[in-house]
Amino acid sequence: MELFTPEIGLVIWMFVAFVLLCLVLGKFAWPAILSMINSRGELIDKGVVYAQEAKQHLDNAKAEADKFILDAQRRQAEILREAARLKAQIIEEAKEAASVEAQKVMDAAKLSIEQQRKEAELQFRNEVSSFAISIAEKLLRQKMNDDKSQSKLVEQLLNEMETKN
Amino acid sequence: MCILTMKKVLAILLMVVAAVVAPVQATASASSEGEGGTPGFDIKEIIFHHLGDAYGWEVPFSHDLRIPLPIIVNDSQGGWHLFSSARLEHGQTYVDNGVTYRIAEEGDYSGKVVEVAADGGEFRPFDLSITKNVLALFISAIVVMALVFSLLRYYKRNGMRAPRKGVGALEALICFIYDGVIKDTLGAKAPKFAGYLLTVFLFIFVMNLLGLIVIFPGGANLTGNIAVTLVLALMTFIITNVKGNKHYWKDIFWPDVPLPLKFPFPLMPIIELFGIFTKPAALCVRLFANMLSGHMIVIVFTMLIFIFAPFGVAVTTGTTVISVMFSLFMLMLDVLVSFIQAYVFTMLSTLFISFAVEEHHEPEVKTEQ
């Protein structure tokens, strides 16, 4: 049968064509194509891993940010509370200090008033006593001369004293 | 929906017209031949002519015109001759440098170029002609190269971007074979044999598909030709046995079987030794027989029309409709078979190579257990 006997010419041509095709493709095409497919696969794998990591980072960052915000809020509240407490304390202290100071000033004022009053009293007393002495002196002197004049003098002196006061 | 039905209606109409016209033409030509005194159709010869090789390539839609192809022969004296196949058409003889050639019409060399001796005896010269099959072979090789290099060019232009459409389909096919068959079976040794196996797959696939196209660039029954599949199987045979490691040879000459099976009479080694040759032989015959039968069945269905032509218009019309439907169906099935056979050839080649090159660990594992 013609169909079942291989034709030597076709065998030779087939061998030549196929070996050439194998050599050409095996040398120039397949290694490049396979390495390309391989490297692209690796790139895609890397991309997937990178995306996963990025997503994880993002999730972590969000959680961290939330934590920070919560912490900040807590600290803010603390600070505010502290400030309020400090404010009250300062006001309290200031009030206390002011009242103490005021007391001091008042005490000092009282003291000085008292002193001045005492001084004035003393002075007044001294003056009155000196007047009285001088009146008595003059009276004594007038009395020596004339009664009339003496009384006149007394009166005059008294007047003087009155006007003086 | 509407367009689809329109298309369907058109297709059916076309089929009906073809069904009516074809038998009329056939009966006409048959009767004219009958009048000429020659017997009608030699169905067998037509079928085998279509399945076999030829020195010219049929021009579509013409009975007589052939695309001339170069005939290269080495004559009985050892001289080379190169001339066009057009010189030998229709049983003509041609004298080239004193040697007479013609295409034998009967006998052992039927359909082949023979040297006509002075006494009328025929001598078959060493024939390296670029026949229809050889040219189809070259066309297939060029198509394979164009496909593969188009993928390579895509990579050069687009870098890491994945290809789309046609190039993408080609890449998917290559990945399917490489990842699904070659890498799975050969593992770390895959890149070493990938060049051969991928080339074999694409080459067979392209040859199969080109064979299904009935006009010029295709139509040659290449993979249904035993010479082609023989060379392919031979390549697998050579690679398997050249690259086979010592485990492979040990398994052949001293397999892990009970001693009486290999000594004193080496029964198993003989069987294994036969296995070396039967494996590639099965590869060769499987591809050859599958593709040959695919081509044959389509032609037979087509020939049915002409076989039934003498029984009247009604019978012929019915046969035509059924034949066209069946041969269409078979052609579509052949597209599937083209892929499956290319895949099977590649897969089995990979398997045989992997048997030859893999490092055996199983026996040791068994003894450990």
From the structure above, extract its key features:
heterodimer, A: mainly alpha, B: 369 residues, alpha+beta, 4-stranded antiparallel β-sheet, 3-stranded antiparallel β-sheet, 9 strands, globular
At a glance:
The complex is a heterodimer of chains A (165) and B (369). In chain A, 95% of the residues lie in helices and 0% in strands.
Question: How is this fold's topology laid out?
Answer:
The complex is a heterodimer of chains A (165) and B (369).
Chain A: H1 8-145, H2 147-164
Helix pairs in contact in A: 1-2
Chain B: H1 2-35, H2 43-51, E1 56-58, E2 66-68, E3 70-74, E4 80-84, E5 94-96, E6 99-103, E7 113-116, E8 122-123, E9 126-127, H3 132-158, H4 165-186, H5 190-212, H6 226-243, H7 246-253, H8 267-307, H9 313-357, H10 362-368
Antiparallel strand pairs in B: 1-2, 3-4, 3-9, 5-6, 6-7, 7-8
Helix pairs in contact in B: 1-9, 2-8, 3-4, 3-5, 4-5, 4-9, 5-9, 6-8, 6-9, 8-9
Oligomer: heterodimer
Number of domains of chain B: 2
Number of helices of chain B: 10
- Which shape of chain A, going by the Cα principal axes? rod-shaped
What is the ordering of alpha helices and beta strands of chain A? HH
Rg from Cα of chain B: 26 Å
